[in-house]
Amino acid sequence: MEVTEVKIAEPKIKMKRSIIDVDIHNYTPLDEIKRYLPRAYRDQIDLWGWRLPGSLYLNGGVKVGQMTDSTPPGGGFPGSDLQFMREQLLDRYQIDYGVLTGSDYSCQASPDLDYAAAVSSAINEYTLEHWLAKESRLKGSVFIPKQDPLQSAKEIHRVGSHPDMVQVIVSSGAEKPYGHRYYHPIYEACVEHNLPFTIHVLMEGVGINGPNTGAGYVSYYPEYRASRPMVMAAHLASFIYEGVFEKFPTLKVVLQEAGVFWIAPYLWKMDEDWKALRFQTPWVKKKPSEYFRSNVRVSSQPLEPTPNPETFNQMMNSVYANETLMFCSDYPHWDFDSPLRAFPKLEDSLWEKIFYQNAADLYSLPARGAGKEGAR
Amino acid sequence: MSGFLVGKASEIPEGDKKIVVADGRSIGVYNIGGQFYAIRNTCPHQGAALCTGITAAFITSSGTGSFEYERDGEIVRCPWHQWEFDIKTGCMVIDPKMRTKSYEVTVERYDVSIEDQDVYIHL
Description:
The structure holds 2 protein chains of 2 kinds.
Chain A: E1 19-24, H1 30-33, H2 39-48, H3 82-91, E2 95-100, H4 113-132, E3 138-143, H5 149-159, E4 165-171, H6 184-192, E5 197-200, H7 221-241, H8 244-247, E6 253-256, H9 263-277, H10 288-295, E7 296-299, H11 309-318, H12 321-324, E8 325-326, H13 348-363
Helix pairs in contact in A: 4-5, 5-6
Chain B: E1 4-8, E2 17-22, E3 25-32, E4 35-40, E5 54-60, E6 68-77, E7 84-86, E8 109-115, E9 118-122
Antiparallel strand pairs in B: 1-9, 2-3, 3-4, 4-8, 5-6, 6-7, 8-9
């Protein structure tokens, strides 16, 4: 039987209004990054390879974690082709602004601090030149060698004031929980440049970073995904109990891709413990949940569906979604959240906060429709 | 002067307390700086015998790693969950920045008077 290929037309998407997407993975391939490295590192790479620690686990989708349909028509890697990203994501879903979060966090697990710093700078240069300069809707994240806070601060001072850089980004995998005073030079620089500090899951248990659970290493990819909230929870508690938000009251921290609703019972627990144990950390002046509301933001993907709508609404209230939650798609990763279908129907004012205003406030982005270039 | 006789004032020196049962209620009577205060010996949280807890200071801080002592001897920490109550007001103390602010949780307090060296509580 002969089969003729039929070209299926993309269904027309009808968005309520334009939105902001705070987690878009543009591909930052090492062979592109290499050009921005100092000669010594280029020579080393030619002789001995990249020596960057990689993931221990499987992923979803194809090509290590990508949506099957996200490969550009030209055949490049998903997230590598700006024009295809415009068509498949930005134009299609009326995304006014998208925050790029890169694709390679491996330098943040490297024991070689200077090399990690050089790779971070190279990623930033590549992103500025090949992405941010070409598309005004896209904003960038400053990669830093977080295992060396002083060099991290230097990198934030170097590129952090660029108008298209809107946050600093690190992997959730770390040597110490991020509230620790070891990291405070990073927050000083973040505050100076008015940049949120974003923790994105990845690199837990890899290279110099601690294992992906306190119980040790997990075995499988879904189990690794299940461990992500635990690591993120450790960072969240660390920021609160180390007094970071008392020391840097204007610092904003964003939790990315570790899920959302686990935060609710975690805050309940911390609030209860604070009543009992306040005097052991008297520099924690407010309930932990109050610091969460004032200083922490959460991006939505991968949003957990709940057994029923009542529970969903209760959980949304319990994580103060109206103030703290920002939509993100995680394009082009396999567990992409559709702007249309990831959330159930929301009350309009809440939709507006989650899909636009909370991100606009955090990243100082213009109100909808303001300051648009004609070329859309 | 009607009231429940707790005992001689000299029985409760400064910084000390006496727990008595009055009218079926267990009550802790404290001497703080020569003044007497009385609160119910029941924690409003989960019912522990509050006044058997440690009498402490309110510890505050001017930054990570610093501990400063305030209101020494004016705070009781519940023996079970260590919630802190101001003995003078019966309020659960939380926010050092707002001295007068009480938490939603308070413990019943009683007036105390001294007559001829005897301490009375008024229920």
